Amino acid sequence: MIQVREDEPAYAFLQDKETQQVNRYGASIELQDPKQDEPLKVNGEPTPAENPNRYKQHGFYFTADNCIACHACEAACSEKNDNPGHIAFRSVGFVEGGTYPDYRRINISMACNHCDDPVCLKGCPTRAYTKYAEYGAVLQDPDICFGCGYCTWVCPYNAPQLDPVKGQVTKCNMCVDRLEVGLKPACVSACLGKALEFGVIENTPEGRTQVETEIPGFPDTSITHPNIRFQQTRALSRDMKRVDSTPLKYHKDDAAGKYVPVLDPKHGQGKKWGIKTLLASHENAHVIFTLTAQAVMGALVLLLVAGSLLKLPVIKNIQQSAAEIPLLLTLFVIMGVGLYKLNMHLGKPHRFYRGFNNLRHSPLSREIAGVTAFFAGLGGYTFFSFFDHPVATFLAGAAALLAVVGFVAGSWYMYRLYRIKARPFWDHWQTASTFYGSMLSLGGLLLTLPAIFFVEEPQALVRFMAGVIALGLLIEATGLFFHRRYLQQGAGEGQAAHYEQTTTFGKTYWLRNTLLLINILLVLVISYTGLVGSPGVITGILLSLSLVIMAYLGRILFYALVIPTTMPGAFFWKNKGFVEHAREVGLASMPQLGVAYERHHVFKFDELMQTIRENSLSDMLAHVRAVLTGK
Question: Is domain 275-560 annotated with CATH 1.20.1630.10?
């Protein structure tokens, strides 16, 4: 437990004496009767502290007028939590407006806000998060975390920090060990200008006049009801700009009485490819998984529903031909590759089974369960299809039913997990139209290619499946059309994402849309004519390549274009543009810059083989251990 120094200054101690009953959002500040449940034991202490406000919601108070951006709060936090240079639970960014000599700047110090409705807790599939009645602290256990990073997606404030080296998330813990002995968190005690304060929420610190829930640059409070309050009394410019690479600024809306995020076209209007950025994206594993999973889901459900349930002749012919077993094996292998790629993307792949821990709240946990059920059903159906026996037929039917149930749950929650309020680009029904459209288009393609060489009447199959593919492409195109209008007519992060897709990735975006139109025309022609022979083979090959390229470009843009509602960064610190630049040119090898390369899921095979050739067995084993541990 923290030892209180004899010369501890008075400002470092908690000073709340009187508190209110409810907070700004109508929630009770008194969280729990301490006699009801087992109290939180901090650092293994056998008895809880004698803090009269221990079971009341605490929070931070930030006075922007006083902050001088000295970063003492960051340093104190990182020192106390023994954080490496690239991890900071608290960080200082700023927005600026006006021109010399009337230049205005607001510094913003931000950490976890220990929200009333913590979306990180609900989203985490491993249940690594807990909101305690003690102080209202939202605590996270990195030992439970398996490094999926979903909490970093859903949090509007960039509070959870995914370590690219260790492959696990950590975050601010409200310094509950200091609170237990009556001390304020380390960041508050270290603040030079009394910009940071801490105590029971809704209490106004001494010498303050405002207790606001928002400040220019702070995301929408309705998402999580954060426990932080602000004071900012100095006059500001009508437009306050971010100095990081995000194309956003904050405009004063007199009608709303606050600053709202609007587009700031920092990169001009020129169209670029951005291919290098896309190919190097951290989210390529998600691209591969979602595309393969959706293609296999679409193919198997078409086979089962249209063939076994509806008994459509063109699909029934596949099931009765020699194509069925090779097709099922192909689907199983493709799905396995996608799942393997996704699992190895985790910070701790060997802890994958923890993804089922939060079925009650997490859409990601439900997606994992649904996709796993589908994959198990696919495997069972494939295996039992080898045998011509009544028992095997029954078991194959049961496995098929499991696959269909897994498809319903897995595909739905695969969509729902992206409806994130902190990521407006995803928070639209277009996500569903894209996912289900891909199931029809890619699934139809995957079902057709192996079967066309085995069925007796390939022309009928080609026409039918071309219609299915056309339907999937039309569904996707409809969603993209309305999504574009939604982003254009919107504001803030969504509008900024549209700006990025028409400038930074404008040429790639144009290519994807062109391929989509060409593919729709091609499959409509094939559906009408039923092309066979050499022209049909050539057209089919071109269509297949075009579909795959279009699907990949569309999906990687889906991930690359997201602009989350995170806090503004500084010139370097927490600046996405600088992080990408540092990793590209090698500056990330300098720990003092606060950037690190992603190492937790990279196995350096070439370095390992070189070590095997040049070193002894003991050196080789040491190297293997170092590679696996990331040290």
Answer: yes
